[in-house]
């Protein structure tokens, strides 16, 4: 660690120890009992059944004994301060953490009662079933058509050109993009606006008919109008897909999700109906976070 | 020494937000104080047959109305700008509702003041004023305690006020029977007794509004709506 970093760390330690004015609480001191999630973390007939999940980066335990069910066709939002483990936990759901060498996942993670981490499992097939949309739109430097057709092609979902055309059209329609791009499918995708690119990425994710769509802060690079369109899309997609969304915008979680899960320092503190979380959360830490008392 | 609970709205990262919520609370309590004084002065004007004081109460009601509008605006702006959640949201929503109750209490005070003017002009011997004084004292302390429960976020005190409301209703029924007896004794008493009956009715309504405020305090503190539920249910919410 450089001298500067050491100095900064010492300064932070000091500020942690600083006296608070009378009557102010220090939320971080609230003891979190490991694995003791309050609220309603379980569901009947879940899509994902996750038990005692722990994730390590080397020696660091980033996820601490989390158990959670994700119901079919629900939209569940993961919220929490930076570094709380919500994205790490999300990436367990389609084994995106596999690509990180020092990352180890422990516990039982099941998708439709089958082990996600079974060594014999085909990860490519898994990721077709559990698609993902990232924070920054990342279209391929190809045409709009080829972006959407890419997945169906490599998974052999279409035998004829007309079948592929149908998939591209229906995916773009579902993503609310068809009317905007139908006359320029051959144009390069990187020339689209940010909001359009993100909806193209959603179209690309749903083109392979996934069962679950994971979204890792899908709107954080978008303007409010594009955000509203993506949120509208999430509401429509939830009729056919299970959606897990990580978001830094609590209002977004409040708007789009059925259930909200609050993460804190690698713990899953509370899972409840979104309506309950935003009007009368059960856990003090959830309350402090969503009301802007720390973050 | 500030009460520990008083700080629950003052520890946001945004100091401006703290200030806005504090301002909302302060304005609400100012309006509460003004309304309390309106009821007190209206009852005093009636009992003392003081037409001038009653007239002052009547005029002051306009100020209470202005406070209502200002508080509603403040609450609306907080929702628009801050999108409050959880206890902050419950505070803002409760204030909006309780302000309406306070304004109605102000209206009841004005009603009493008008009747005080009428009765002082008629100059009749007082009848039923014992009952008025008794019920007025009771509902005034309820209103005061409700505002106090709001200040201290004391849901147990709020629960006690809900229970008190039942007793006020009983006292009102008993007073109504007494006045009915006066009216039957001598039909010349009817006009006076009806006026006093309206006063009692207004006071009983003040008790209802104090009870509504108490219910909102329980919602603010406990996060559960106890309106239109039994006292036992409210006890469960507060006790659990």
TrEMBL record, chain A:
GO terms for cellular component: membrane. Gene3D superfamilies: P-loop containing nucleotide triphosphate hydrolases (3.40.50.300). GO terms for biological process: phosphate ion transmembrane transport. Residues 1-36 are annotated as: Disordered. PROSITE patterns: ABC_TRANSPORTER_1, ABC_TRANSPORTER_2. Keywords: ATP-binding, Nucleotide-binding, Phosphate transport, Transport. The keyword Mitochondrion does not apply. One of its GO terms (molecular function) is ATP hydrolysis activity. CDD domains: ABC_PstB_phosphate_transporter. Residues 48-290 form the ABC transporter domain. SMART domains: AAA. It comes from the Bacteria. PANTHER family: ABC TRANSPORTER I FAMILY MEMBER 17 (PTHR43423). NCBIfam families: 3a0107s01c2. This is Phosphate ABC transporter ATP-binding protein (PhoT family). It comes from Marinobacter persicus. The lineage of its organism: Bacteria, Pseudomonadati, Pseudomonadota, Gammaproteobacteria, Pseudomonadales.
């Amino acid at each position: 660690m450089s001298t500067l970093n050491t100095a900064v760390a010492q300064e932070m330690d000091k500020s942690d120890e600083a006296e608070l004015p009378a009557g102010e609480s220090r939320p971080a001191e609230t003891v979190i009992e490991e694995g003791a999630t309050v609220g309603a973390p379980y569901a009947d007939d879940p899509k994902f059944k996750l038990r005692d999940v722990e994730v390590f980066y080397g020696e660091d335990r980033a996820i601490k004994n989390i158990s959670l069910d994700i119901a079919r066709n629900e939209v569940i939002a993961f919220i929490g301060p930076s570094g709380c483990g919500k994205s790490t936990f999300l990436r367990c759901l389609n084994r995106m953490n596999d690509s990180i060498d020092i990352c180890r996942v422990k516990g039982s993670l099941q998708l439709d009662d089958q082990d996600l981490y079974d060594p014999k499992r085909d990860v490519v097939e898994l990721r077709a079933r559990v698609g993902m949309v990232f924070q920054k739109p990342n279209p391929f430097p190809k045409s709009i058509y080829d972006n959407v057709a890419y997945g169906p092609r490599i998974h052999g979902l279409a035998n004829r050109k007309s079948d592929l055309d149908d998939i591209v059209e229906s995916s773009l329609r579902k993503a609310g993009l068809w009317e905007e791009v139908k006359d320029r499918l051959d144009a390069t995708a990187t020339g689209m606006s940010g909001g359009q690119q993100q909806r193209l990425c959603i179209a690309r994710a749903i083109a392979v008919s996934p069962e679950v769509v994971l979204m890792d802060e899908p709107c954080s690079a978008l303007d409010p109008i594009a955000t509203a369109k993506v949120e509208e899309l999430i509401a429509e997609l939830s009729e056919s897909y299970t959606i897990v969304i990580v978001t830094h915008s609590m209002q977004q979680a409040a708007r789009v999700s059925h259930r909200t899960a609050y993460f804190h320092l690698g713990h899953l503190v509370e899972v409840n109906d979104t309506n309950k979380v935003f009007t009368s959360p059960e856990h003090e830490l959830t309350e402090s976070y969503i009301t802007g008392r720390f973050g | 020494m500030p009460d520990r609970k008083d700080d629950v709205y003052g520890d946001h990262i945004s100091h401006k937000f703290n200030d806005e919520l504090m301002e909302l609370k302060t304005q609400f309590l100012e309006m509460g104080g003004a309304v309390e004084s309106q009821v007190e002065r209206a009852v005093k004007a009636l009992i003392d047959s003081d037409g001038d004081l009653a007239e002052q109460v009547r005029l002051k009601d306009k100020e209470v109305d202005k406070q209502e509008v200002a508080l509603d605006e403040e609450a609306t702006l907080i929702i628009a700008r801050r999108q409050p959640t959880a206890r902050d949201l419950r505070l803002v929503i409760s204030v909006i509702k309780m302000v309406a109750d306070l304004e109605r209490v102000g209206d009841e005070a004005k009603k009493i003041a008008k009747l005080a003017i009428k009765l002082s002009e008629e100059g009749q011997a007082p009848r039923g004023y014992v009952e008025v004084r008794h019920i007025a004292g009771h509902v005034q302390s309820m209103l005061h305690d409700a505002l106090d429960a709001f200040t201290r976020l004391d849901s147990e005190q709020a629960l006690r006020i809900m229970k008190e409301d039942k007793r006020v209703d009983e006292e009102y029924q008993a007073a109504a029977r007494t006045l009915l007896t006066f009216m039957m004794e001598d039909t010349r008493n009817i006009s006076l007794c009806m006026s006093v009956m309206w006063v009692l009715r207004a006071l009983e309504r003040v008790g209802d509004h104090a009870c509504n405020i108490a219910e909102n305090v329980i919602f603010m503190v406990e996060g559960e709506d106890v309106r239109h539920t039994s006292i036992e249910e409210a006890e469960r919410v507060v006790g659990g």
